[in-house]
Write a structure and sequence with these properties.
Length: 359
């Protein structure tokens, strides 16, 4: 059996350790790998189900993790103690909101003409979704077996309690009787919940926890004083870009269109035009490379960069004309002048010390 190195959340590690050591006999642990369509691409992807139930049913900790493999460009090997792991891939498992997976799966029964469709019992929806996706993936699996999504995996996922409780975040729900509840996918409900995620991610206390996000905002000149409105729009756009990793293209476009980012777009366009202007006036490749590095570093004031480059260019031109004159006018030191006046009569030349002596 092959061995892989993986990064997991601490609570998952604790659960797996307890299960292996059988330290807690009063808790039921369930870990299962599921192959489901990725919500952005629709391609089969691997997910880890982590379900933990206490015997008295008072504690229920469940989550689903996305499994990603980071493969190095060149061959790599892991050394752990005295063990050698030949496969240099790094497996990363990160918790994922089941809403993203539901959003993709429950859209499958929708009519192609864009109509909202009818309310249906969830069991009927699950059966149609699982059969439809399994049949579609069967064709892809003929070329690549890893692209096969089984109906059992979809049914297992959609039947989980914590997944069932998330269905209302992507569907209209109607309770007909105590025993009959019907559902219908709702694009508006999905957008409303996504906008809630954008609000949380664009909160300054959250957004500025990431240095990468701060650099991105600074690169566009949004961290300067007096640009608070643009900065807020910048955080919203970054939040949308973070969510885009799990959103189909049409939903992402509708999410971005629900915000007025026209001022931000105009500002960013101005910044990019100034960056291109700096590259255009660079006199040589070396200087152009310096400008490119400055742009990549994210100077907050593009005009200041432009002025500085112009000044530098003027200094170089002025300095080139005066270099010869400065060298000519430069005076020798006092010691050098005294050596020039010293008598060298009778002294051997320096070259004589490097010639062979006559036999």
């Amino acid at each position: 059996m092959s061995t892989h190195l993986a990064i997991l959340p601490l609570d998952i590690i604790d659960t797996l350790t307890a299960r292996l050591n059988q330290e807690n006999s009063h808790t039921d642990y369930a870990t299962q790998f599921l192959r489901l369509p990725h919500p952005r691409t629709g391609l089969a992807s691997l997910f880890l189900l982590h379900d933990q139930h206490a015997q008295d049913n008072t504690t229920n900790t469940s989550s689903i993790l996305e499994v990603q493999a980071i493969s190095p460009t060149n061959a790599r090997t892991w050394f752990i103690g005295e063990e050698v792991i030949a496969d240099g891939k790094l497996m990363v498992m990160t918790p994922m909101d089941p809403m993203f997976l539901l959003m993709y799966l429950l859209r499958v029964p929708q009519a192609r003409d864009g109509s909202v469709g009818n309310f249906r019992p969830m069991q009927d929806i699950i059966e149609e979704v699982s059969a439809n996706i399994a049949d579609t993936s069967e064709k892809d699996a003929q070329k690549d077996p890893s692209l096969k999504v089984s109906a059992d995996d979809i049914i297992s996922f959609l039947s989980l309690d914590f997944v069932q409780s998330s269905i209302k975040r992507v569907c209209d729900v109607k309770v007909i009787t105590d025993e009959i509840t019907v559902y219908r996918y709702s694009h508006d409900i999905v957008l409303e919940n996504l906008k809630g995620k954008v609000r949380r991610l664009s909160n300054p206390r959250v957004a500025e926890m990431s240095r990468t996000l701060i650099r991105s905002l600074a690169k566009d000149g949004l961290m300067d004083d007096g640009k608070e409105e643009l900065l807020e729009s910048g955080r919203i756009k970054l939040a949308c870009e973070l969510l885009s990793q799990y959103l189909p293209r049409d939903i992402l476009q509708d999410l971005i269109a629900s915000y007025d980012l026209s001022k931000l777009d105009a500002h960013v366009k101005t910044v990019r035009d100034e960056e291109l202007a700096l590259l255009a006036v660079a006199p040589d490749t070396r200087k152009r490379a310096r400008v490119t590095k400055s742009v990549a570093a994210g100077d907050k004031n593009p005009k200041r960069k432009k002025d500085a480059k112009a000044t530098e260019s003027a200094d170089v031109d002025a300095g080139g004309d005066g270099d010869k004159k400065k060298k000519k006018d430069a005076k020798s030191s006092h010691g050098v002048e005294k050596l020039k006046k010293a008598s060298v009569a009778g002294m051997s030349k320096l070259s004589t010390f490097f010639t062979k002596k006559a036999a």
